[in-house]
Amino acid sequence: MARTLGCTVRELLARIDSQELTEWGIYYGLNPWGPERADLGAATIAATVANCHATKGHTFKPSDFLPRYGAPPEAEEKTPEQLKQLAMQTNALMHGVFQ
Q1: Which residue, 17, 56, 84, 95, is the most exposed by fewest CB within 10 angstroms?
Q2: What percent of the chain is predicted at pLDDT more than 70?
Q3: Count of structural domains, the chain
Q4: Which domain holds residue 54?
Q5: C-beta of residue 40 within 8 angstroms of C-beta of residue 62
Q6: In the chain, count of helices (H) and strands (E)?
Q7: φ/ψ (deg, to 5) at 3
Q8: For the segment 31-43, what is each residue's pLDDT rounded down to a tens digit?
């Protein structure tokens, strides 16, 4: 969100409180914007073009053309304690208070 607004994370956190940031996060979950959404649009076009030239019986999906970031899909799931630690680390990076 800071990138979208053209400011640093620190500047963003100085401008809005955690409640508003949470609301924006929920809104983004319902209606994403930015590079990820652009990737989906480009992947949809790529799948359409590829399907125009595909052999019979083979079709492409937009997901075939989406970049894959982060851990590979086969990475093991995190335990509740690991998720809690990750949340606390993320909160600390944003200078939040954990209660």
Answers
A1: 56
A2: 92
A3: 2
A4: 34-68
A5: yes
A6: 5, 0
A7: -60, -40
A8: 887 777 888 899 9
Arithmetic mean of pLDDT, 74-95:
80
Three-state SS sequence of 27-48: HHHHCCCCHHHHHHHHHHHHHH
> Which amino acid, 49?
V
Q: Which amino acid is at 83?
A: L
CA-based nearest residue to 66, from 45, 51, 87: 45
pLDDT digits (tens, 9 = 90+) for 44-73: 999 999 999 988 888 999 999 988 877 666
Classify residue 18: in a domain, yes or no: yes
Q: Is 23 inside a domain boundary?
A: yes
> Residues 26, 54: one domain?
no
Does one domain contain both 19 and 41?
no
Structure tokens at 29: 């979950």
